[in-house]
Amino acid sequence: MAVLNLFAAEIQRSGNGRPGGLEGLSEDEICRAVERTHLRVEGSYSVIAMITGWGLIAFRDPHGIRPLFMGVCENDGFTERIFASESVTCSALGFTPERDIAPGEAVIARVDGSFSAKQCHSEPSHTPCIFEHVYFARPDSVIDGISVHRARLKMGRKLAARIPKEHPEAEIDVVIPVPDSGRIAAMELAKDLDVPFREGFVKNRYVGRTFIMPGQAIRKDSVRKKLNPIPYEFEGKNVLLVDDSIVRGNTSAKIVQMARNAGASRVYFASAAPAVIHPNVYGIDMPAKDEYIAHGRTQEEVSQVIGADWLMYQNLDDLLDACRGGDCGVENFDASCFNGIYVTGDIDETYLEKLEGMRNDAAKAAQIKNDEIIEIHNEP
User: Fold this and answer.
1) Which of 17, 179, 181, 259 is most buried, most CB within 10 Å of its CB?
2) Rounded to an integer, what distance in angstroms lies between the CA atom of residue 281 and that of residue 276?
3) Residue 199: predicted pLDDT
């Protein structure tokens, strides 16, 4: 909303003093408004805005951190366009996927069917968020020319190559994914290790993402409701659980305990992503760093905390390699939650300390309580 307000102010500024006001806006003026917005806004953003009676404008931050895609459809001689965060939206609505919007680019679709695109930043880079491929994006999406499904297959392949070297003593009877985003990596890992792949958990699809829920008690209760084990797949077996990542560790610890309660002899755990140890500042409400389970702990200590017989994290270099390439030739990613390198170059310890004060559990609990008080006060 803040970015849209800034953009609206820049458009208004472009129309001031001209006869006809905003109705006479030119595409060059829109692009100048986008350019000025880029200069005023820091961080990640993908924006889609409509000017009534004029058309649609879509633009992406100069680093391309968040995805933005467009598609096209010819309808009785009229060209229609669609803009969305993921390419799968196109096929679902009958549009032909066209391309990603480039970092810093502005794309304009007019109500008369005309179309134009212009680069509106002098020094764009291409460093998309790697967590989209790890967790957020749908597997049938293609982001910046990179197939999410293929990237997750490679993540599983990278893990499989390391297990015989680092844990030669492990006798894995079955590989079981933590649904849903850990499934693809688990499938490929099981294939490469020549170990049976089984679905061992049933997911309640009406429980949201637990790692961003406010409060430890709420998260633990939600984990219990989110998954239910199938005992037949665990009884008397050495089980390797595969998940996309470990953030707070609540889900991981509960799942390991579920596997043991279901009869597993030994429980191993593999994360398709490296340890999350730094705050995400680019639009993902991840917790304060001291609430991450890996903060200040070694891999072995995290394994003990979640109750696994051993734990394996993905190497960051392997994760980057799994996601590189595609039609856009992406080589660099924002992986700040893993390595603490913030691609916008404007994040310092002062900002992170302020952010932590806003995002920790105590701050969220206080906000919830304040909202409840306001709601009670406003009741008739």
Assistant:
1) 259
2) 13
3) 96
